[in-house]
Amino acid sequence: MGAGRMAGGTKAEPRKTPRAQSVYRALRRAILEQALRPGTKLPEDSIGEELGVSRTLVRDAFGRLALEGLVELTPNRGASVAYPTLEEARDVFEVRQALERQVMLSLAGRLSPAEIARLEDHVRREQDAQGRDGPESIRLAGEFHIILAEISGNALLSRYVQEVSSRCSLILAVYGRPHSSECAVSEHRQIIDALRKGDAATAIALMEHHLEAVAARAVLAPRTPDDLALVLKPYARSEGLIAP
Amino acid sequence: MGAGRMAGGTKAEPRKTPRAQSVYRALRRAILEQALRPGTKLPEDSIGEELGVSRTLVRDAFGRLALEGLVELTPNRGASVAYPTLEEARDVFEVRQALERQVMLSLAGRLSPAEIARLEDHVRREQDAQGRDGPESIRLAGEFHIILAEISGNALLSRYVQEVSSRCSLILAVYGRPHSSECAVSEHRQIIDALRKGDAATAIALMEHHLEAVAARAVLAPRTPDDLALVLKPYARSEGLIAP
DNA sequence: CATTCTAAAATCGTATACAATGTTGATTAT
DNA sequence: ATAATCAACATTGTATACGATTTTAGAATG
């Protein structure tokens, strides 16, 4: 198939979208929705064929996804959907807390009525999706954090929060047990309340508790010997088997 | 020039390094050392020719540098060295503080003797380079923060700190006034001390003060109307000319 | 039957080719 | 002379081509 699709012809549709971007987004969604499960091998050829583009664009997308931690890139051996280790998981959660703490600080007492409305509207949608436990509910719960970061007005902070959120999704896909996210809705409401009142300390405490609940879901299924060690260590410590 | 350099020939050197990585690093250094000044246009052809590689690799490097905020990528119009706005600068400094705060929390009271030695050794090198005010001194001062993040053992935190540090360099290249970094050395020593004593609060306070000093150097030369507004706003507020 | 070597296939790394878009400078009409 | 128009040029977007490396399958050997 030729590169530039019909130039002359009869109408010449605008062809606005840069296709590289589309490839990136498609792969990203496929990974986050677990259509591509962690560990899946990703040959450039097949993927490109599947998406109707050349290896060039697929490769480009892989590069970006690798920087975001969603794809693992081994030299001369190609790409695969990242399979986060528990150590990486710990790192991600730690950074996420630091970032979201900053979001709370930026937002406390500075939410405009329109922004509060936007957040409450979102929480309402979360509650609606509550029953149907499909991926919809999980996606919405995650988006709450992204919206908060967006409202902070700090583009970099927003980008980083989005990145760690994505990686959290992947981590939960590997280590998380299925779990109803009932608590999320009420916790989100409390956070909005604290932010409106300008109570930064409470907002931060709530957020930390909330994220710890998310993290707690991930500390379960050890896969590698190293992961096993990480899971067992706190128990060993609490029993006085190893030094703190 | 052919792709795969001599296969037969007489010796066939190993050719270990992936060239894409080299291109990326070369451009990165060139930008950070201001050999390529902010705003400089970066045509794929010329750069590739200069570096002895094809556009493919240059393009790949541009993609990565753009994600790190060092290069600006405009669709169909190519790449240029990023010219950060003051708003971006504010964002970067804010995120940097949040991240380095986390580094302090991770490190306070947990530095091993070897790690303390490494840090003190680095500070000693900073002091040596003090006199010769070349770029050497600035680079070393920046590296102190990167080493701290590295010691934290959190790979993601380390990557993010490195990224915001790079962007800070670029920001100072645009807005910073030349300024002796005498204070840096003694401040760095104080931080090590606080960390060794396990005094997280003091370490955080010192780091924040230190970073604010860096940030203060950047708030000077407004370039765009928007930047001008950002610079003047705090003054206007302090004079009661606009509402806080 | 397990193991090591080898040849073929698959896949990656990089360069080049071609189409599409943007830029520039000359030409013409006002 | 100035502004609008269009052709030549420059540069980006994407596909294809080709050498290099890794993986796999099969044959030969112990």
Explain what you see.
The structure is a homodimer of 244-residue chains. Chain A starts with 18 loop residues before the first helix and ends in a 6-residue tail after the last helix. Chain A is 65% helix and 4% strand. Chain A has a three-stranded antiparallel beta sheet. The longest helix of chain A has 22 residues, at 86-107. The first copy, chain A, has two domains: 19-81, Orthogonal Bundle (Arc Repressor Mutant, subunit A), CATH 1.10.10; 86-216, Four Helix Bundle (Hemerythrin (Met), subunit A). Chain A is mainly alpha-helical and 244 residues long. The radius of gyration of chain A is 21 Å and the shape is elongated. At the A-B interface, helix 3, helix 4 and helix 7 of A face helix 3, helix 4 and helix 7 of B. Chain A binds a DNA duplex (30 and 30 nucleotides) through helix 3.
